[in-house]
Amino acid sequence: MIASGTLSLFRSALTRLVLAGIALAGLMLALSATTPPLSAQESLGEKARKIRAARENATAPAAPAPGQKALSPSAADLSATVNLISETDAEKYSAGVRDLLEQERFRVLDDVAAGERLNKTRFAGGEWKLHTFYEAIASPAGKGRGVVADWNAYRDRLNRWLAAQPDSVTARVALAEAERLYAWELRGTSDVNPESHRLFGERLKLAETILNQASNLQGKCPELYDVMMQVGRAEGWELEDLNTLLQRAVAFEPQYYYVYQQHALTLTPKWRGKEGDAEKFAEESAKQVGGQPGNILYWQIAQSIIGNPELAKTPQHFSWSTALVGYQALVEQYGASNLRQNQVALMAAKFNDYMTADDLLLQIGDRWDKGTWGSQEYFEKVRTWARNTAGPFKKIIEAYKAVNVNVATPEGQRYDGQIAKEFSAHFSGAVRDCAAGGGTAPTLLIMQVSKTGTVQQMLVVPETASDTCLRPKVEKANFSSPPKPEYWVRVSLK
User: Smallest Cα–Cα separation from 176: which of 222, 142, 207, 220?
Assistant: First the structure.
């Protein structure tokens, strides 16, 4: 069951948002000031001055370039805050957040997170900048669970952040996430012994305690619920309690879709559900939200499950057409991103939609995403499959478009009739003989005829038909000259 502290989550965040807005307004005014001292230095209050005094080991700002006026420590922090909030490239943003943590510029980290939280800003593709902020500092390597550097030094740094700013919800959520990930590092993925299992439980409980403390602060953060849902799932909370937590998370911030993704994962057979539960949850959630936002939510939930490598062998029953509609709505609202293109290309491949996969992979080029594909070898394998499978079919489509353009003209209609007569006169017997040989016989030929009437290309429909019998005969043919060179024409074999 959820402890009373956990169930006390979701108290009003209004006060914290108002304070954050005031702080950000002060930041912008300070940056626009032309003469020192900066007025925003006082607007941040006694709390900011205490934080600066406690940050004994913080890295000093870089020396100014020749001829450039040096910024005061406060001005440097204000500039760093606004510059990072203005960053629209997700990779540069993540690198900037990690650098701030390594430099222990804790006030800047808090101000950046407050700004993203207040404005609900997103990158192209719909990723919340706030979520990216936490992901950037999720572990010593900045990449979440996996091979890491020095966990103890990293956690000590987060604790220094919390000591410097005890009222920071951002510091507590970051520390709780670090303890959760560290718990998994201690546990390992196989051959779990009693000691590692004990350490795993201790770290999870510590993460829960930190989150409960964060829930009692004036400020609230939607990422708190994302982390708490992961902690609760790992600790084995009752599904009813996890449902309650989801409801409160959605009540606090309905658009923070990561909590839906976490609950969908909980409902998979790997954790607390059975086959089909996650899919049903996605349908019901999308219907409840409704409209384009509901379509987008369906795609976000489906992508998180289908793209999860740990669930690769789990039977899944999501609707690809519904998910694709959701993805298109997402792009319409937030724009496309390389990450989203990689994710939807992988989904298309898993649904055997080689046409869509090929289109997307052509757009992606060499900009493959390791987090999506796992390895370049797998990416190349899927790309080759999509190209080889979709290529011939796309070629037929393009050729058929050219045929339709040609036959729409008077000269094209006359030539179409002429080719039909010539083909019937010379190849009707060959068509019958080849059809009698067994296998799937072509029903339509699409030919490209040269200026002199020779056959340059020949495509068969359906694409699964065998043309080994008919092709050698037709390719040697010489038809009447077409209206123009490289002319596409069709011949029905029915």
Answer: 207
Tokens of 77: 């922090």
CA dihedral sign, ordered 232, 238, 240, 241: negative
Closest CA to 452 of 407, 425, 482, 426: 482
pLDDT 10s digits, 337-390: 999 999 999 999 999 999 999 999 999 999 999 999 999 999 999 999 999 999
Tens of pLDDT, residues 164-221: 999 999 999 999 999 999 999 888 766 678 888 899 999 999 999 999 999 999 889 9
Coil, helix or strand for 220? coil
Give me the residue spans of the domains in the chain: 1-56+72-235, 409-492
Say if residues 266 and 273 touch (Cβ distance below 8 Å): yes
Q: Give the span between the Cα atoms of 302 and 294, in whole angstroms.
A: 12
User: Which two tokens mark 470?
Assistant: 């008919």
Only one residue has tokens 């043919």, namely 477
- Token pair 């005969």 is found at 473
Single out the residue of 101, 134, 112 nearest to residue 225, CA to CA: 134
Q: Token pair for residue 321? A: 């057409």
d(CA 83, CA 98): 14
CA distances to 81, 141, 373 from 95, rounded to whole Å, are 14, 11, 22
Give the C-alpha separation, 44 to 57, whole Å: 21
* Ramachandran bin of 447, using left for φ above 0, alpha for ψ from -120 to 50, beta for the remaining angles: beta
Q: Which residues make Cβ contacts (< 8 Å) with residue 32, sequence separation at least 6?
A: none
Q: Does the predicted TM-score (pTM) go above 0.70?
A: yes
The tokens 């990723």 sit on which residue? Answer: 127
- Asked if 442 and 461 count as a contact pair (C-beta separation under 8 A), the reply is yes
Environment class of residue 436 by beta-carbon count within 10 Å: exposed (0-12), middle (13-18) or buried (19+)? exposed
